[in-house]
Design a protein that fits this description.
45% of the residues lie in helices and 21% in strands. It has 11 helices and 12 strands.
């Protein structure tokens, strides 16, 4: 195949891929599936036409990487694996090779999302993680426990929101919420590291036909995280219209997401109508956009990233102000949105953190916060 013809096929594949993404965003799933399958067919044809002609690097490996990405989108993991292997067999540039290995890790992790004979009830989800600190049936405790606790917080916040409770600015959930939606864990399974999490009271744990409220909460969490992973924030805003709940969910979703170091992938699997639904979180929270959108106005002059020790946080007396002391001993006052103080900021008390802020007059307004290395 001539080089010009191969590039023309590639451009047509990208047109179909764009059509697929637009259709998915608009909820036209039949059009999406047809378009993404056509994109894979064309991109695979363009990529494999070069075959083992290593003189076409980096075009060769870039096309194979693109075709593998579309294959993963189509959930054709075996096809993706073959394309990635073909690309790595050559001599791709270092950066492209690293991206190919990241894709290969997604392929392998996709297998760990499978239920492998496990039956999930409708109020249950499988939670999986993979990364440098994770092996088959074993993981470092801190990143795992932190994410399980984050899921628990997401469960309680989602239940409160769906029950139309006012946003809780402090304290634990009510006894009623905890009793109805308390997460319970199974023993780990032989995957990268996988467990099942079931919602409900202890008495309900022996009933595979769980009450509908817990199932609805599982569906809502899965849907919101799917919107988050795919940057469909308009859909997410339609689900979560309350600003405090929205800010809170985005902050918690970033805590659940991979950190790009210890944990590279986070997966959820649920069972609906006898078929598994899988979601792989790949967006590294360290590379994600800030939690809150930054809207330039005359009052907003600049964005600032600060690092330091969070040594003061008081949501009542100081109207959601935190103080950060940097390495030079300077103190910075930062205003925190209501939905982020209790679940996102307060657990970082006395930690060294990195904070993304927007300068508003004499104040800094928090848009993102996370632990940082000193």
């Amino acid at each position: 195949m001539k080089h010009e013809q191969m590039l023309e096929i590639h451009r047509e594949a990208m047109d179909w891929a764009e059509k697929a993404m637009i259709s998915r965003f608009n909820g036209d799933l039949d059009i999406y599936r047809n378009a993404i399958d056509r994109a894979l067919e064309l991109e695979q044809k363009a990529a494999t036409s070069i075959g083992l002609d290593f003189d076409f690097e980096p075009t060769r490996s870039v096309l194979l990487r693109s075709a593998a990405s579309i294959a993963i989108e189509c959930n054709k993991l075996e096809v993706a694996e073959r394309l990635i292997s073909l690309a790595l067999y050559g001599n791709p540039p270092t950066e492209i090779a690293e991206e190919l290995r990241d894709l290969l890790e997604q392929v392998y992790f996709g297998r760990h999302l499978k239920l492998r004979g496990i039956t999930l009830s409708t109020n249950e989800l499988q939670f999986s993680i993979a990364g440098e600190m994770t092996g088959t049936g074993i993981t470092q405790s801190e990143p795992f426990i932190h994410r399980v606790q984050t899921i628990e917080t997401i469960v309680f916040r989602t239940a409160e929101r769906k029950l139309k409770k006012p946003f809780r600015k402090a304290g634990r959930p009510s006894k009623e919420i905890i009793q109805k939606f308390q997460p319970f864990l199974t023993i780990p399974r032989a995957a990268s590291y996988a467990i099942s999490i079931r919602l409900g009271s202890p008495a309900e744990q022996f009933d595979v036909f769980s009450p509908e409220p817990s199932s609805e909460i599982v569906d809502e969490i899965f849907g919101c995280l799917d919107d988050f992973e795919n940057d469909e924030f308009s859909k997410l805003e339609n689900r979560i219209s309350n600003t405090e709940y929205y800010d809170n969910f985005i902050g918690l979703a970033k805590q659940l997401a991979p950190d790009g170091k210890d944990i590279n992938l986070v997966g959820l699997t649920i069972m609906r109508e006898g078929k598994p639904k899988e979601l792989m979180l790949t967006k590294h929270k360290l590379k994600s956009e800030s939690i809150l959108p930054i809207i330039p106005t005359e009052e907003i002059s600049t964005t600032v990233t600060l690092k330091g020790k969070l040594h003061y946080a008081n949501a009542i007396k100081t109207k959601n102000i935190i103080k950060l002391e940097d390495k030079d001993g300077r103190s910075h006052q930062i205003r925190v949105p209501e939905g982020m103080m209790n679940d996102i900021v307060r657990p970082l008390w006395d930690e060294f953190v990195e904070v993304n802020t927007v300068k508003e007059g004499k104040y800094f307004k928090l848009s993102d916060i996370q632990k940082a290395d000193e």
